[in-house]
Amino acid sequence: MSTDHYDVLIIGAGLSGIGMACRLAMACPEKRVGILERRHAIGGTWDLFRYPGVRSDSDMFTFGYGFRPWNELKVLADGPSIREYVVATARDYGIEAKIRFGLSTTHASWSSVDARWTVTAVDEQGDEQVFTAGFLVGCTGYYAYDRGYIPAFPDLDRYKGRFVHPQVWPDDLDWEAKRVLVIGSGATAITLVPALAQKAEHVTMLQRSPGYVFSVPSRDALSAALLHVLPAGVVYAMARRRNIALQRLLYRAAMRWPRRMRALLLAGVRRRLDGAATLDDFSPTYDPWTQRLCVVPDNDLFDVLREGKASVWTDTVAGFTETGVRLSSGATIDADVVISATGFQVQVLGGMTLDVDGIARDPGRLLTYKGVLLDGVPNAAVLFGYINASWTLKVDLAAQYVCRLLQRMDERMAVVAVPRAPSGQALDTCILDALTSGYVMRGEAALPRQGRDAPWRVTHRYEDDRRVLLDEPVDDAWMEMF
């Protein structure tokens, strides 16, 4: 068993972890930074997900890092391109050498006597390694990497075909000229359907309930035109600012005028379907942005529906048969391959447990402070992205705040920083309470809690977070430093 000490220890080498490490390299170059990563590659989600057509569901100008802009005209990038972007960023900022691969963190323990964290990790052989750190940053996202969510489908064991979950895509899966059933209607499902339809005999998307779907161009034509007259750096910076503004405008409009936004979204779907499917199959019962909107590039989902390569059913699975599924309506769908695009399992800190001076601290019972720190937990941050905009926008703001906090601690010669919530502040709602998605409902108990007022309430508003995290003083009435 070995022990290594770091000024800052980051858990996770995905999009968030690499971004955090790069911000530290720029703002706090004197800090000794380490990263623990359970996989054997950089990229997190974008190294894990290998299903056909995997891509971002946010535009890359805002999904990319603010300090290293996405410099391509592709709006919704494919998974391999995003993975290479993250790897290249790590390489450019000298982060690769800081990563310890193949280590799953299991527990972190804070000692007030020593003013440091002791982190236990396990390698693939089951051997423990121990690390210590002055400051801990969790960059593990909010889902379990080792397993996706599969509902308890009745009689699944009867099915004789191939059953897979996209989170663990098998290399040997062959769907050419076969009947494929995709269960689900979220971002993964609407990405899979057009990709699989290029080779399959037919693809059926079976959804329990519809979601909002809208199409965007796959290539930024405006930026392409501007590149003829302006420097590339200026053009891509303009695209980022423009798209941030558009995201915020759409979300605010949806919150203020939900009926008008619903009518606008459904009118777009109606035009693109052109009779290929009923509008009922794309008409959710909920208001826009109470669940994430699904984005498709260049109408690809609607194209395969119109061409007859794919179809949509709105129904629920009553049970499996040897050749497919039996629906609650009494109908059946036969399929050679069934793909359960049914979401993920919510998990905080990659499943790692915490204690402070021997007392267990469950993140699902703690208030979040400025959406970055946890009430009563010293020298620790947990980075979460936005639910109503690109994930990276919030993560990058949070990373910059962590750097500001570390700098302020150094200025005050403090070794400990801990936020303390006043009594009566806590609410029994999680940080994703604005969403009614299935994964939030299933896993909300694991997510940090909301407070009644700022800075204990997550606003999901980029303009407010910029002010709070980048401009307001680090010192306030709730932050103890000593």
From TrEMBL:
| Record carries keyword Flavoprotein | yes
Q: Which GO terms describe its molecular function?
A: flavin adenine dinucleotide binding; N,N-dimethylaniline monooxygenase activity; NADP binding
Q: Does the keyword Electron transport apply?
A: no
Pfam families, alphabetized: FMO-like, NAD_binding_8
**Which InterPro entries does this chain map to?**
FAD-binding_MO, FAD/NAD-bd_sf, Flavin_mOase-like
- Record-linked SUPFAM superfamilies: FAD/NAD(P)-binding domain (SSF51905)
- Similarity section: Belongs to the FAD-binding monooxygenase family.
Q: What is this protein called?
A: FAD-containing monooxygenase EthA
- Originating organism: Luteibacter rhizovicinus DSM 16549
